[in-house]
Amino acid sequence: VGVIHISEEARDDVAQKLRIGIYFAAWWALNVVFNIYNKKVLNAFPFPWLTSTLSLAAGSLMMLVSWGSRVADPPKTDLDFWKALAPVAVAHTIGHVAATVSMSKVAVSFTHIIKSGEPAFAVLVSRLFLGETFPLPVYLSLMPIIGGCALAALTELNFNMAGFMGAMISNLAFVFRNIFSKKGMNGKSVSGMNYYACLSMMSLLILTPFAVAVEGPQVWAAGWQKAISQIGPNFVWWVMAQSVFYHLYNQVSYMSLDEISPLTFSIGNTMKRISVIISSIIIFRTPVQPINGLGAAIAVLGTFLYSQAKQ
Ligand code: 3PG
């Protein structure tokens, strides 16, 4: 019986590793596709507030249809759940729109190099707002992260302040989002997939009035006509692809968060950025100077050192 028991455990372990491996591979692949279509859309139609809103709208619609048709079970939520979700949704909305504004101003690779500095923000926020302290190696690992990001920013050929600040604001907002959502998901009453669905819906409600105020239907209509006349009817597919893939990669990442520690999650997220940085440089033929690439490599290496130090 003992032998059967052990082999069953081993089988469960292999099955879980395989499942997490599939989640990670899907998360990175979906994210690369999102980033490419998002940038293609922003190049032709530079309205990041609208594209951010459409991403949330597509996800909300897909999940409402899934719940209505019972493809997915709707979550059982109460007022307390939505109250706890509110700060997560505010942070998610700010982080999402700030990253998209950044990508509308600079190369996708640059936004993600700055976003690879997120662990430095996590440590600073935990230290300053939550009073958490960390062992010395964690603080030391921030030096290559901050230094690498700074070097990459200083040597970026197409540096733009709004693009840089957007990525920085996104880092800060996502650190708060992760802190709040870890608290909210701890009860485990709602699965990762449904948690992210509710998050999208609430963020959509928050973002829509701001998107209308900042950009607005008139500029959207004029921009849309121009984009269609330049790109042709395919442009509609690009917009749909960026919206649907945005939801899918986030959904998969929240599904994997159900099964892994936040630390494993952040390592996965950094590896995701490497694939986005490399693929977007190739696809958009982004000019990169060696010193600029060195800065990016140091920043990413720093994130790995950080994850080791935290372990
Ligand atoms: C967004 O638009 O929300 C950002 O591209 C998300 O960035 P991240 O999920 O890679 O942190």
Features:
single chain; 0% strand; 12 helices; globular; mainly alpha
Quick summary:
Its main location: plastid. With 311 residues, the protein is an all-alpha fold.
What is the fold's blueprint, element by element?
Blueprint (H helix, E strand, L loop, with lengths): L1 H43 L3 H21 L10 H27 L2 H8 L2 H12 L6 H19 L6 H25 L6 H23 L2 H15 L2 H24 L4 H22 L6 H21 L1
The protein binds 3-phosphoglyceric acid (3PG).
3-phosphoglyceric acid binds next to helix 3.
Q: Can you put this structure into words, describing what you see?
A:
The protein is mainly alpha-helical and 311 residues long. It has one domain (2-310). The chain has helices spanning 2-44, 48-68, 79-105, 108-115, 118-129, 136-154, 161-185, 192-214, 217-231, 234-257, 262-283, 290-310. The mean pLDDT is 92.
> Count of helical segments?
12
Summed over residues and divided by their number, the pLDDT gives a mean of: 92
Tally of domains: 1
What is the string of SSEs from the N terminus onward? Answer: HHHHHHHHHHHH
Which stretches are poorly predicted, pLDDT < 50 over at least 5 residues?
A: none
Distance between the termini: 36 Å
Structural class: mainly alpha
Describe the oligomeric state of these chains in a short phrase: single chain
Helix content: over 70%
Question: What is the beta-strand fraction?
Answer: under 5%
Write out the distinct hetero groups bound to the structure.
Answer: 3-phosphoglyceric acid
Report on the biggest sheet. Answer: none
Shape estimate: globular
Rg from C-alpha positions?
20 Å
Count of extended strands? 0
Domain Sugar phosphate transporter: 18-307
Transmembrane segments: 20-37, 49-67, 161-180, 192-211, 231-249, 290-307
GO cellular component, one term: chloroplast membrane
Protein name: Glucose-6-phosphate/phosphate translocator 2, chloroplastic
